[in-house]
Structure formats: C-alpha cells, structure tokens
Design brief:
- This protein has 355 residues and is mainly beta.
- Among the domains are: 83 residues, conserved putative lor/sdh protein from methanococcus maripaludis s2 fold, CATH 2.40.420; 89 residues, Elongation Factor Tu (Ef-tu), domain 3; 75 residues, Beta Barrel (OB fold (Dihydrolipoamide Acetyltransferase, E2P)), CATH 2.40.50.100.
- The chain has 1 helix and 21 strands.
- A hairpin with a 2-residue loop joins strand 16 and strand 17.
Length: 355
Amino acid sequence: MGDKKISNEKKAVIKSWITTVVVLLLIGGTSFASYKIIKSAKDKKANAAAGGGWGRGGGGAATAVSTVKAETSILKDFVITNGEVETQVSVDVFPSIGGKVVQINVSLGSSIRKGDILAYIDPSEAGSYYVNSPVTAPISGSILTSPVKVGQKVTASSVIAKIGDISNLQVTAKVPERYVAYLKKGQKAQITFQAYGDQIFEASVYRISPVVDPATRTKEIILHFDQKYPQINAGMFAEVKLFTVDYSGYPAIQQDALTENGDDYYLYIVKEDSTVTKRKIVRGKNVDGYVQILEGLSEGEVVVTEGMLTLYEGAKVRDISGNVEFKEEPPKAPEGGAGGPGAGGPGGAPQGEKK
C-alpha cells in the first residue's frame, strides 16, 4: 500500500510539471506572436515616416541632368564647298616673238616691278642671227607661276610667267547648281585652311558667274576677305562654308535633346520644383545639329539636353547647368495615406482619434 501511494504521488508531480511546461510554452508562443505583430506595425510606421520618396514607386535620388534655357534664335543654313586662293589682280606675260628661252631672271614668288626683265628669248633661226628679245613685266607684283625653262622653245602665245598682287587675295569656289537660287552678292562665308586648323577667316561674295558650267553643273563665285590676313598665301586650298538662308522666330534646341516615339518627338522640361514634364513638340528646320521648335516650347523654359534616358513624367532632377535651383522638398503624400514626415505630414490617424 505504501509503494502504491508513493507511485501516485510521483504521477501527480510529473503531471504538474507537464502542465507547467505546456502553460509556459503557450505563454511563450503568445508573447512571440505579439512581438511579431508589434514589430510589423512598427516597421510599417517607420516606412510611412520615411515617406514615398522621389521617383516612380517611391524611393530614389534625383537624376543629374544638363539643361539649356530656350531662346529665340537664328539658324543659319549653309553649303560647304572647296576653293582656291588667288590674287585679285593677275596678268599672264607673253613674249613678243617666238624662239628659244636663253635666260630667266625670276623664280616663283619673286617680287618684281613694272618694266623689269623677266626672261630673254633668242628668235634666231638656222643661217640667221637676231638680238635676244627681252620679256618685261607689265605690272608690279610677285611671280605666281613660271612654267618655262631655259632652252625651251616658246611661241608668242606661250605664257612665260604670271604676275599678281599678293597683298590683295580672293577665293574662287564653285557652288552646286541646286544652291544657285540662294546666291547673292555680299553673302557671308567662313573660310578655313588645313594649315590653320579650326581658325576661321571671314569673307563675302564679291562676284557671281552669270552662267552654270554645263560640265560640272556648278556656278563659280569669287569671295573677298573681310580684312587682310597676312598668313594666307596665294595658291592655298580653302574650305568654304557659305551661309545661304536664315531661319528665325523660334527657339532652337540641339537635336540630341529630343526623344522619339514613332512619328512624335518630345522634350523634357524642368519645372520650378525640380521635376520634369515630358512634352510633345513640333519640329522645324534642322541645321548643323540644332532644330527649330515650332510648337510645344516657349522662350525661357528649361530643357534637358543630357541625362534624359532614365527620365519619366514627374521624375526629380538636379540641374547641374544651374538653370533651375534644386528644390529639396519631396512631393506631398495623398490625403488619407499613412505618410510620415518624409511624405509631407504626420502619418496615421490624428491624435485623440480612436483607431
């Protein structure tokens, strides 16, 4: 009987311990679940306090962009052609009689005066003797060409030398027939030379040929430099940028600033709050990488020119060109939303209101 009583007491103790363990497990599980619920609520509140951010779907820093302020400007259309530098005045020198060249007194570039003897011609024939005939300079200047050599036979129609005034130069160029309608006297041009890189020499159209060359379908023009350039030499090869027509009355933006969607073109305009709006525009003339904006852009508006590949309507941007001051304020949260201070106001229900 005693052993049985002790056994019952052990069973009671074990049962009590099991009950205690079960109760503790239930309490621990409930506490853990409560902790997760509270933590989840805190996380949501923290996320709301952080606000929706600046950008699509919330979050994200402002995109750095380059911009330009739209201004009404003039696009100058042009045609590029080649030319050659010549003297404005030049004379071919001929002998008065045919014969053999026995003496030449000048060379290419020689400076001469009117009346100087350039060469001597011996008109003698077999069985006869003549005094050498001098060839004299009809004007003062420099020798531009001297195509003959001593011992060479010449006639009265052979050019002994060409003399020109190298202090007054011009450029002779040929313009394709399709641009003839744009040609006019006084038209401006910019001349460049390989020897001087990107240095520009200003010139104007002085004379226009009255005919089109049927062989080349071009019209010859002569341009005079707007001032004397001592570094330019007769005979140099020139590249001529001839301005043909001006397009004015509209803002002009670099072509790369436009985004394309099918047949439509758009610009990103920066607003005062440092966000952008994507706006459809109508293009005009395109000249040398710049395009007229006929509709959709007003003078003074700020246009994104670089960095627009990742932009979208309402995107936040930082203008590194300095045309728009960056605004730090994020957009306001929608009414009724659980936004924190970062979303423009306190989140959740107002104080004192029961949830």
